[in-house]
């Protein structure tokens, strides 16, 4: 069978079919477009079909491929971790704007999942000391694999330090006060109808262990305890739902954090809110 014929009959959106062909058949996008007559070997066809079946059953493309690009890096992802989203790159941009390239800042990523935020910051700011926490051992193992694959072994700030546990309680006694605390925590309300479409991703990543009617239970904890872990002048930046910005700004103010502000994503929707501990 030729690639164009497979694409026509695979029963997938063209963009997903092309992604499978690129990954499984090892063909470039340009080659697929220029040579639609390229024949597919029987063994390739079988591997394509296995993956196409998983996509047709609703599994996210990133789990089927086993990777997702985030901040220009290719992260390994499994169903144990949330698939990194483009809007989360806003948090990384926010962090990089506050760390000069040669500076040795202390950065904490709460709820690291695949390690997307922690590893992207560590990659772009080699001198930063990066700490990361997750309540899922499987997620931390994935983050460790990504850190090892994507960061140089002789990185100036060392390898990211990973801790298993419940938010700040996971940190060891010698943890520093952080210049930046970044988090994309669970923030989906327990009865949110969107959960059905997200059924393949871990519930701990979406709703958390403290399911709440407004989705803010974990954000409340992270914000309330932030002042005890921030260095003077340090920033807390949190990703949240499209309708939670005002509530998160209020939580930051209640916690005594200053300069509370929300940042829009590419669609103009406030998806990250930040505040700082006065110096
Ligand atoms: C929305 S996912 C974010 C993953 C990753 N940072 C990203 O942006 O792609 C939230 C993460 O928080 C973790 N988590 C949930 N509750 C937690 C808790 N109480 N303490 C630490 N991590 C927690 C989940 O296991 C999950 O990996």
List its traits.
alpha/beta, Rossmann fold, binds S-adenosylmethionine
Summarize the model shown:
This protein is of the alpha/beta class.
Tell me roughly what share of residues is in helical segments.
25-40%
List the secondary-structure elements in sequence, H or E: HHHHHEEHEHEHEEHHEHEE
CATH architecture of the largest domain: 3-Layer(aba) Sandwich
User: What name is given to the CATH topology of the largest domain?
Assistant: Rossmann fold
Number of helix segments? 11
**Shape annotation:** globular
Which compounds are bound in this model? S-adenosylmethionine
Structural class: alpha/beta
How is the main sheet built? 7 strands, mixed
Query: Strand order, biggest sheet?
Result: 5-4-3-6-7-9-8
**Could you give the distance between the termini?**
66 Å
- Provide the number of structural domains: 2
- What's the total number of strands? 9
What's the CATH C level of the largest domain?
Answer: Alpha Beta
Calculate the mean pLDDT score and round it.
95
Beta-strand residue fraction: 15-25%
In CATH, the homologous superfamily of the largest domain goes by the name Vaccinia Virus protein VP39
| Computed CA radius of gyration, to the nearest angstrom | 20 Å
Low-confidence stretches: none
Pfam families: MTS, PrmC_N
Domain Methyltransferase small: 97-195
GO molecular function: nucleic acid binding; peptide chain release factor N(5)-glutamine methyltransferase activity
EC number: 2.1.1.297
């Amino acid at each position: 069978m030729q690639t164009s014929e497979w694409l026509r009959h695979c029963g997938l959106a063209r963009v997903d079919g092309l992604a499978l062909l690129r990954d499984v058949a090892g063909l470039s996008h340009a080659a697929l477009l220029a040579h639609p007559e390229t024949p597919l070997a029987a063994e390739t066809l079988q591997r394509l079909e296995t993956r196409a079946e998983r996509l047709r059953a609703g599994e996210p493309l990133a789990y089927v491929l086993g990777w997702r690009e985030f901040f220009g890096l290719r992260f390994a992802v499994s169903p144990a971790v949330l698939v990194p989203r483009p809007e989360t790159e806003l948090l990384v941009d926010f962090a990089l704007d506050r760390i000069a390239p040669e500076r040795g800042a202390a950065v904490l990523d709460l709820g690291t999942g695949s390690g997307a935020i922690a590893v992207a910051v560590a990659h772009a700011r080699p001198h930063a000391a990066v700490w990361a926490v997750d309540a899922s051992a499987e997620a931390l193992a994935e983050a460790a694999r990504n850190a090892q694959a994507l960061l140089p072994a002789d990185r100036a700030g060392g390898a990211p330090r990973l801790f298993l546990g419940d938010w700040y309680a996971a940190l060891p006694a010698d943890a520093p006060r952080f210049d930046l605390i970044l988090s994309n925590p669970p923030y989906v309300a327990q009865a949110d109808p969107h959960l059905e479409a997200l059924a393949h991703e871990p519930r701990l990543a979406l709703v958390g262990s403290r399911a709440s009617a407004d989705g803010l239970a974990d954000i409340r904890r992270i914000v309330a305890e932030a002042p005890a872990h921030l260095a003077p002048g340090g920033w807390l930046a949190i990703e949240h739902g499209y309708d939670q910005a005002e509530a998160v700004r209020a939580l930051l103010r209640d916690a005594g954090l200053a300069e509370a502000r929300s940042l829009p994503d590419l669609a103009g929707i406030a998806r990250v809110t930040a505040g700082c501990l006065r110096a």
